[in-house]
Write a structure and sequence with these properties.
transmembrane, mainly alpha, 8 helices, membrane, Peroxisomal membrane 11C
Length: 233
């Protein structure tokens, strides 16, 4: 019990850990609130959706300080000269650019909604969502490309009978599959938040948005625990 509490405290004391917990709670509230709304339990679902809205707003405000961290990561990756695969390299570079541009667009939308600047926020929210969606789509392409290469390596090592290497490759394949599921879940939600008329923009029920976001968030927590990585708004 003490170990579990200590682990939770350590997670909550870090910015990324706290953000992942808030993200999971936010989408979980949407999931259960949406289910309750469908069943006609008005008071309960309204409370859950209010909590989800406040958590989402809190995360948006905290992301005002993420630009420099993203810039540092982008500069460290550079043009990805260390990447062996050229396609993975350029997908990653374009993805980093999309992620970098996402933040100022979201900041402008937040500032407009808060009344800090006098302009409509709609176009800025659309731009930030589109950039997030582009980043997710590129992430899916990147994972598929890596999966293709890993499967080829696994076949080679299977013939050579190298169990340790096969185990490492199997772990990498699992990580990429989870990343694809996570990014796909978020991409469905990203399209939902685009203006009505764009694919299924505005058509997803609240419970589905919550379910997909919860799945993505739990995968992110799992990958963090095992040393992987998964991002998500």
């Amino acid at each position: 019990m003490r170990t579990a509490v200590t682990g939770l405290v350590n997670v909550l004391e870090s910015y990324r850990g706290r953000d992942r917990v808030m993200r999971t709670l936010c989408y979980s509230c949407q999931l259960f609130g949406g289910v309750m709304m469908k069943n006609g339990e008005k008071k309960n679902w309204e409370s859950l959706l209010i909590v989800a809205s406040q958590l989402s707003h809190c995360r948006t405000v905290l992301r005002l300080f993420d630009d420099l961290a993203m810039l540092a990561y982008s500069m460290k990756y550079g043009l990805g000269k260390k990447e062996e695969d050229c396609l993975v390299r350029w997908i990653s570079v374009i993805g980093n650019i999309a992620d970098q541009l996402y933040y100022p667009c979201e900041h402008m939308a937040w500032a407009a909604d808060a009344g800090v600047i006098r302009m409509k926020s709609d176009k800025w929210w659309t731009a930030s969502t589109a950039l997030w969606g582009l980043s997710l789509f590129l992430g899916i392409l990147r994972s598929f490309r890596i999966l293709l290469k890993l499967r080829r390596h696994r076949e080679m090592h299977h013939k050579k009978n190298l169990p340790k290497t096969r185990g490492e490759i199997k772990s990498q394949i699992r990580s990429e599959v989870l990343s694809i599921i996570s990014c796909t879940s978020d991409l469905v939600n990203a399209v939902h938040w685009m203006p009505p008329g764009f694919l299924w923009g505005g058509c997803s029920p609240i419970w589905l948005v919550g379910l997909l976001g919860t799945v993505s968030s739990l995968i992110g927590i799992y990958q963090t625990a095992v040393g992987g990585s998964s991002g998500g708004v």
